[in-house]
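Input (structure):
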């Protein structure tokens, strides 16, 4: 039996690395939302965003909810698309008018979250996601249906 190459081992671990990436990014995003909405975790010096204030309160709700969904891997692609869009809006409406480059305008977090979530839109949730449980059931049902159709056609 041949010994797996490093590339082969990395390929096998890819879904788990992607799943860990999703969990960490989702948790960090959720923490931003919790800090803004509830004044916890040391964010905003214990203060909160005024309820209903545009755009801060809505952004914090998106951060909390989308972060939790991405963390759990539930509706990952949709939640990640919403989160990516909210961070693009934050970057271009809040940070970019100050200066073009993120290092100069304080928009590094917005830019990184935007691109991290956009990556999850295209890659999916990786391993250990609730999406996989529901997707696996759906795939099994589709497979059963396809098998029944194939059996009916050959009979």
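Output (sequence):
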């Amino acid at each position: 039996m041949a010994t797996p190459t490093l590339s082969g081992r990395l390929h096998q671990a890819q879904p788990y690395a992607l799943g860990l990436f999703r969990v960490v990014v989702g948790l960090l995003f959720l923490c931003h939302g919790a800090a803004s909405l509830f004044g916890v975790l040391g964010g905003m010096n214990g203060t909160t965003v005024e309820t209903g204030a545009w755009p801060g309160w809505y952004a914090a709700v998106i951060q909390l909810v989308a972060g939790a969904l991405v963390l759990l891997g539930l509706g990952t692609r949709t939640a990640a698309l919403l989160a990516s869009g909210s961070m693009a809006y934050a970057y271009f409406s809040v940070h970019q008018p100050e200066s073009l480059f993120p290092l100069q305008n304080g928009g590094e977090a917005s830019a990184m979250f935007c691109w991290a979530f956009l990556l999850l839109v295209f890659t999916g949730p990786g391993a250990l996601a609730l999406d996989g449980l529901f997707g696996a059931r759906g795939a099994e049902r589709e497979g059963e249906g396809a098998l029944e159709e194939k059996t009916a056609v050959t009979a």
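Notes: The chain has six helices and no strands. Residues 6-38 form the longest helix (33 residues).
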